[in-house]
C-alpha cells in the first residue's frame, strides 16, 4: 500500500452517494475505483487489490455481507461498511464477519474520509514498502514489480536500474521527471548520460507493455518522463 496515495474501492450502487464519497476521498489524496454491485466489487478486489473497501450493505447480485465474507476469506483488506440500517444487530454482524468500521447513512462525508484515513493508518504497518500506480504494484523490499491483469499477476523481468526508475517515478505519479533527476536518483555515476536514461526507459516501457500495462511510461517532449496515473 502507498500510504500517501491509497486506492479505495467504493462498492455502492447509488451513483450520487458514490460521487460524494469519491470526491471527498480524492480531496484527501486517495485514489478511488467504483463497483455498482457485489459481484463487480469482488472482481475488482481480486484484480486491483485495493488498500480499503467502502462497502454498502444493500447491493444488487451480492449483498455487502456476502462480499465482506468473501473478502475476509481472501485476506485482510480493511473494510468500512455503509448502511442505512441503524441497528445494533447490523453493527454486531459487521464486526463479527470482520468489518473494520461501520458508517450509518445519512453520513457526513468529511467524517467518512476521516474514518477512511484512520482505518488505513491502523492497517498500514507495512505501507511504506509497497507502491501502486494503476495496475502496477511495486514491492520495494523484494524488488518485485507486478502487473495485475484479468488473467492474473504478471512479473516483468526488470533489471535493477529499470526497477529503480519505475519505483522512483511511482512515488510521485504524474510528476514529470527530467533526465537529470532520473540520473541523480537512479543511475550509477558511470552511466550518467541522458541517452542512457532514454535507453533504460525504452526497455522498461516495452517490458511493461508486454506484461499488460501499456502506456504507463510517457515521454514529455523537451522535459522528461512521467508515469501515467491510470486507474
Q: How is this structure best summarized?
A:
By secondary structure, this protein is an alpha/beta fold. The protein has helices at residues 15-27, 38-48, 64-74, 88-97, 109-123, 160-170, 179-186, 194-211; strands at 7-11, 31-35, 52-56, 79-83, 101-104, 130-133, 136-139, 144-149, 152-154, 217-220, 224-227.
Describe this structure in words.
The protein has eight helices and eleven strands. With 231 residues, the protein is of the alpha/beta class. The protein has two domains: 7-125, Rossmann fold, CATH 3.40.50; 129-227, Arc Repressor Mutant, subunit A (Orthogonal Bundle). α2 (38-48) packs parallel to α3 (64-74) and α6 (160-170) crosses α8 (194-211). The longest helix has 18 residues, at 194-211. The chain is elongated and about 65 Å long. The mean pLDDT is 83.
- SSE order in H/E notation? EHEHEHEHEHEEEEHHHEE
The proportion of strand residues reads 15-25%
Q: Which consecutive residue ranges, at least 5 long each, have pLDDT under 50? A: none
Look at the structure and give the mean pLDDT: 83
Total domains, how many?
Answer: 2
CATH architecture of the largest domain: 3-Layer(aba) Sandwich
Helix content: 40-55%
Major sheet description: 5 strands, parallel
- How far apart are the first and last residues' alpha carbons, in Å? 15 Å
Query: What name goes with the CATH superfamily of the largest domain?
Result: Response regulator
Continuous helix count: 8
As laid out across the biggest beta sheet, the strand order is: 2-1-3-4-5
Task: Quickly name the level 1 CATH class of the largest domain.
Answer: Alpha Beta
Shape: elongated
What is the gyration radius calculated from CA atoms?
A: 20 Å
What is the total tally of β strands? 11
Derived structural class: alpha/beta
CATH topology of the largest domain: Rossmann fold
Amino acid at each position: 500500500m502507498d500510504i500517501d496515495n491509497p486506492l479505495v474501492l467504493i462498492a455502492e450502487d447509488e451513483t450520487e452517494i458514490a460521487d460524494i464519497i469519491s470526491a471527498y476521498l480524492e480531496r484527501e489524496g486517495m485514489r478511488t475505483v467504483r463497483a455498482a454491485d457485489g459481484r463487480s466489487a469482488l472482481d475488482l478486489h481480486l484484480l486491483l487489490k485495493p488498500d480499503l473497501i467502502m462497502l454498502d450493505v444493500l447491493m444488487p447480485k451480492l449483498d455487502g455481507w456476502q462480499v465482506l465474507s468473501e473478502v475476509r476469506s481472501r485476506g485482510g483488506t480493511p473494510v468500512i461498511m455503509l448502511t442505512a440500517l441503524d441497528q445494533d444487530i447490523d453493527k454486531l454482524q459487521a464486526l463479527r464477519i470482520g468489518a473494520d468500521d461501520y458508517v450509518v447513512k445519512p453520513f457526513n462525508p468529511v467524517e467518512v474520509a476521516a474514518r477512511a484515513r484512520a482505518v488505513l493508518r491502523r492497517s498500514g504497518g507495512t505501507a511504506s514498502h509497497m507502491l501502486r500506480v494503476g495496475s502496477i504494484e511495486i514491492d520495494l523490499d523484494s524488488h518485485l514489480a507486478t502487473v495485475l491483469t484479468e488473467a492474473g499477476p504478471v512479473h516483468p523481468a526488470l533489471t535493477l536500474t529499470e526497477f529503480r526508475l519505475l519505483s522512483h517515478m511511482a512515488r510521485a505519479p504524474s510528476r514529470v521527471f527530467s533526465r537529470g533527476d532520473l540520473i541523480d536518483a537512479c543511475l550509477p555515476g558511470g552511466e550518467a548520460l541522458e541517452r542512457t536514461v532514454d535507453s533504460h526507459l525504452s526497455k522498461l516501457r516495452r517490458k511493461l507493455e508486454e506484461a499488460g500495462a501499456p502506456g504507463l511510461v510517457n515521454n514529455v517532449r523537451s522535459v522528461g518522463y512521467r508515469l501515467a496515473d491510470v486507474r
